[in-house]
Design brief:
The structure is a homodimer. Chain A is of the alpha+beta class. Helix content of chain A is 32%, strand content 41%. In chain A, 25% of the residues are buried.
């Protein structure tokens, strides 16, 4: 049957670029040290998103996810992202 | 040499429990539909954290990371988490 859709789950990991200061991460690191987690040397906080979608093919799913990330889900000036597609 | 430390990077994924409403996810889903991503059926937003730490052993690293998650990094009432340890 032409055009049967594939349902996919996109797992998207958004993190700040290395050059960008992460005050939230610094605050969490400070709090962890206060809780005696002295061996913590760095904390970076980002976003984890799960998007369920259907697409005509796996290739189209990749295009859709990259489009969403570039257009809405990430701020390309300060953030970078990786993602993986799994069957929904 | 007794007591040499292992440096690890903990990748922590925090998501809302299924039973918990995700207004942020609903808002993003709505925005994606407005951008013509009509095949999106669900969006869940969570936190992605990278914590760099050293530990006496891999086992100790697991204990430390679980401790941090339970004590500070997650809210066990509404959130669940998974993590993976990789060499820093």
């Amino acid at each position: 049957m032409e055009g049967n859709l594939v349902d996919v789950l996109a797992k998207i990991y958004v993190t700040l670029k290395e050059s960008v200061l992460d005050p939230q991460g610094a605050a969490v690191s400070h709090a962890l040290h206060a809780l005696r987690y002295d061996t913590v040397s760095d904390v970076r906080i980002g976003k984890y998103m799960e998007v369920t979608l259907s697409a005509g093919s796996e290739q189209e799913a990749h295009q859709l996810v990259r489009g969403m990330c570039d257009q809405l889900l990430t701020n390309p000036v300060i953030e970078k992202y990786t993602y993986e597609l799994v069957e929904a």
